[in-house]
Design a protein that fits this description.
It is a single chain. The protein has 289 residues and is α+β, with helices and mostly antiparallel strands. Helix content is 36%, strand content 24%. It has helices at residues 14-24, 37-42, 79-84, 86-91, 93-99, 105-110, 113-119, 125-132, 150-153, 229-235, 242-255, 266-287, and strands spanning 7-9, 28-31, 50-53, 63-65, 71-74, 136-141, 144-149, 154-156, 159-160, 167-173, 181-187, 197-205, 211-219, 226-227. A hairpin with a 2-residue loop joins strand 6 (136-141) and strand 7. Helix 10 (229-235) runs antiparallel to helix 11 (242-255) and helix 11 packs antiparallel against helix 12. The chain is globular, with a radius of gyration of 19 Å.
């Protein structure tokens, strides 16, 4: 099928993009990499009156460390760059690893981090990493700029706290401690498919070798990326060990809220999710051993 008729606009800076979207009204849409929106147009699932193309806005493709050690990633940074740029691996290795699991290389060459996060597919890897890393989503709209914590950004399937006319300008990741231990795993039917379930995890240890802080996030485990707080709580204050990780995996399973669909049952996703939590934590322990 072919997409419905729409007007096309190509702004050259961020403020022009916001102004164009405001002028075109609520039926206009921003387009980034287009890896989700274009198929939706062709299938007539989406029928915007206008597309505001963000590819010509250089500011949105900037990436680098800030003076306070945080790592800022512009919304138009391609997934392939997240996967291959040594600066990303040095600043946030969990982000780099997860990016390599996104679809196929052709998709990663065009898809963007901002587009993925704004689309908010609960089975997508990058929204899960944003949540796992406590990132801040910086949005720009008719009322100015604001930062939304990842914990408040994802509201439901394909639904975020972005206001009408807002776009994501960049995502800012907290400084990544050099001693942080992390793991990422997912299960899909075929390489490049959406994950039936995935897990991102990390933990920090104190001087006594006990876990001081931890994050465990489920992907494809609910209507949004999902923090598995019970599993995190089981880790904090304890020394890392396979026995502890088994306990944390069982606790994390309690927080999983997967759905049944044509690809897998909720029971399967819950069982596999617990296994992946354990394996991610073992990977984390072994990675810096």
């Amino acid at each position: 099928m072919k997409p419905p008729t729409f007007e096309y606009f190509a702004p050259k800076d961020l403020h022009e993009a916001v102004a164009m979207r405001h002028a075109q009204g609520e039926d206009a849409r921003y387009i980034a990499g287009g890896q989700s929106l274009v198929p939706m147009l062709n299938l007539r699932v989406a029928a915007p009156s206008a597309l505001i193309d963000l590819n010509g806005v250089p500011q949105l493709s900037e990436m680098g460390r800030l003076t306070d050690g945080r790592f800022a990633v512009g919304a138009m940074v391609r997934t392939r760059r997240l996967e291959t740029d040594p600066a990303v691996a040095a600043a946030n290795p969990l982000l780099a690893r997860a990016a390599a699991h996104v679809a196929h290389v052709q998709i990663r060459n065009r898809g963007t981090i901002g587009g993925s996060v704004a689309h908010a597919d609960p089975a997508a890897e990058l929204p899960g990493i944003v949540l796992a890393c406590d990132a801040g989503i910086e949005a720009c709209g008719p009322d100015g700029a604001r930062t939304v914590p990842a914990t408040e950004f994802f509201e439901a399937v394909f639904t975020t706290s972005l206001r009408d006319g807002e776009l994501i300008s960049r995502i800012v990741f907290p400084e990544w401690p050099a001693t942080r231990r992390w793991g990422f795993r997912e299960v899909s039917r075929r390489e490049g498919d959406f994950a039936m379930v995935g897990i991102a995890a990390w933990y920090d240890t104190d001087e006594a070798g006990r876990i001081a802080d931890a994050r465990i996030v489920g992907i494809g485990a609910g209507d949004t990326p999902l923090r598995l707080a019970s599993g995190e709580a089981a880790l904090v204050g304890e020394k890392p060990s396979p026995d502890l990780f088994e306990i944390a995996a069982l606790e994390a399973q309690r927080d999983l809220r997967p759905n049944t669909d044509i690809h897998a049952t909720a029971e399967y996703r819950r069982e596999v999710g617990g296994v992946l939590v354990f394996r991610c934590l073992v990977d984390a322990m072994e990675r810096t051993a």
